[in-house]
Design goal:
Number of helices of chain B: 8
Distance between the termini of chain B: 48 Å
Structural class of chain B: mainly alpha
Radius of gyration of chain A: 18 Å
Number of helices of chain A: 9
Number of domains of chain B: 1
Oligomer: heterodimer
Shape of chain B: globular
Number of strands of chain B: 0
Helix content of chain A: over 70%
Largest sheet of chain A: none
Order of helices and strands of chain A: HHHHHHHHH
Radius of gyration of chain B: 21 Å
Strand content of chain A: under 5%
Number of domains of chain A: 1
Chain lengths: ~220, ~260
């Protein structure tokens, strides 16, 4: 099982690293979205510091969403996805490997880069840690839940906006807990509750979402 | 004979009858007018009792009477989503055609009731809370529910192939039902202005019966209205889907 998983994951990573522009795109998008906020709001350090955590979370959600459209599409168009569906090995395992490599190329990179953005928003170091932990727990859930939408819209030619409409409402809890964590810690409140909530959502997404993704793929691809 | 087995047997037969579009059509020819009639009777009684018999609220005066539309709509917005998810699961597990019809036909009705709950809530909030909209837990989660309905409808209509669209929408409905409670509690935790539960709560309803009876009548009446709309829409969809089958052609010939 571990071997199969690694085989799938290695394939995905190879595909991702051979086309390095797909790796850079979500990160560029993430930074650009975050930078739009200081430019469009009054340039007060106190305000930026207060909204910084929320802005970075919204940017991370949008960057993840943008990367999802290309998650299954290339495999669908070259026929690899159909081979996955008819092969004897576990499709669930393949899907988990795909989500994992997708996350490592988007969510993980965003999380690692987020502290740098925090500095431009003048967020204090303690809260940078809070944001980092929140993103580390939250972004895998974003990719897992988003992959359900990506699987549902894989056969559609123009699925981008539709994907956003069906997936963004499902992202709200993660956004509330993740961004709420930063705000709460800025006020000196306890944030264990939010960490537990994010961890619980991740556990739930990790156990249920793969089956939903498989169901969605089987439902849409004949 | 064991009564449980008999009841089970009855539902088993009903299920198999409902699974066939033709049988469903026959049954719905009977249930649709019954539901419509029950809706009219219950809503008429509820409206009369609510507007003329129930006393004015000691704080809110007559403006509280919008509750007789607001609460039933809010109840149905959740109930219809549950129906959609259950039907979606049945469709996906047992490959039942009619279950998909229920999912697809319920979505616009659910969206309409959710919008109605939001609009009446806003109208109620304006004089009582002094605001049309507040970023409050109940209001926000109801708004998110509206987007879930609209997303399900958009997904269905995005597919050229009707059957693929049905299956995809069913998957989305089932996924949504797992997440709706999480959304609800996350939003609740985040902020709240809306009052707590009044009818379904530990220790019985916190409402005098003169106010509660019309509310329950209206809620039941609205639910029958949903049943009426659902069966009407499902009838149309069945006839459209099965337009090439023998029994539909016979039906049309009979009419002519």
């Amino acid at each position: 099982m571990t071997n199969t998983f690694m085989l799938y994951a290695m394939r995905e990573w190879q595909l991702l690293f051979r086309n390095s522009s797909t790796l850079a795109q979500p990160l560029c998008f993430f930074v650009i979205i975050a930078l739009l906020f200081p430019l469009s709001l009054p340039a007060e350090n106190a305000l930026l510091q207060r909204i910084g955590g929320g802005v970075i979370w919204v940017s991370a959600v949008l960057a993840t969403l943008l990367s999802l459209e290309s998650m299954f599409k290339p495999d669908y168009h070259d026929g690899a996805l159909e081979q996955w569906l008819i092969q004897p090995r576990s499709l669930t395992l393949a899907v988990v490997a795909k989500v994992f490599s997708q996350w490592s190329a988007t969510g993980l990179i965003l999380t690692l880069f987020a502290p740098v953005l925090c500095l431009t928003f003048r967020i204090p170091v303690e809260q940078i840690w809070v944001l980092f932990v929140g993103l580390l727990l939250g972004t895998p859930s974003l990719t897992l839940i988003g992959a359900i939408g990506a699987a549902l819209t894989v056969t559609l030619h123009r699925g981008g906006v539709l994907l956003a409409i069906i997936i963004l409402p499902l992202y709200i809890p993660i956004l509330i807990f993740g961004a709420g964590m930063v705000t709460q810690s800025a006020q000196g409140a306890d944030i264990t509750g939010q960490i537990y909530a994010l961890a619980a959502i991740l556990t739930l997404a990790l156990t249920l979402a793969p089956f939903a993704i498989v169901g969605a793929l089987r439902a849409t691809i004949d | 004979m064991n009564p449980f087995v008999t009841v089970w047997d009855f539902f088993g037969r009903l299920y198999h009858r409902l699974a066939s579009p033709r049988e469903f059509y026959k049954i719905s020819r009977f249930t649709t007018p019954v539901f419509g009639l029950l809706f009219l009777l219950l809503t008429a009684a509820g409206t009369y009792l609510g507007l003329f018999v129930a006393p004015a609220d000691y704080q809110q005066g007559d403006s509280f009477r919008i509750i007789y539309v607001h609460v039933p709509s809010a109840w149905l917005s959740l109930f219809i989503y549950m129906v959609m998810a259950t039907a979606g699961a049945i469709g996906l597990i047992w490959r039942m055609k009619m279950a998909y019809v229920v999912v697809i036909c319920s979505a616009p009705i659910g969206a309409a009731f959710t919008a109605l709950a939001l609009i009446t809530g806003s109208l109620w909030g304006a004089p009582i809370w002094g605001t049309w909209w507040e970023w409050d837990a109940r209001l926000t989660s109801e708004l998110i529910l509206l987007f879930l309905y609209l997303g399900a409808m958009a997904l269905y209509y995005a597919f050229d192939d009707r059957k693929t669209g049905e299956r995809a929408t069913a998957v989305l409905a089932v996924v949504g039902v797992v997440i709706v409670p999480i959304i609800h509690y996350s939003v609740e935790w985040w902020s709240s202005l809306h009052q707590g539960a009044t009818v379904f709560r530990a220790g019985g309803p916190a409402m005098p019966s003169s106010m509660l009876t019309p509310l329950l009548l209206m809620a039941l009446g609205f639910t029958f209205f949903y049943g009426y709309c659902l069966f009407l829409r499902a009838q149309n969809m069945v006839l459209h889907n099965e337009r090439n089958s023998r029994w539909v052609k016979d039906l049309i010939n009979e009419l002519e």
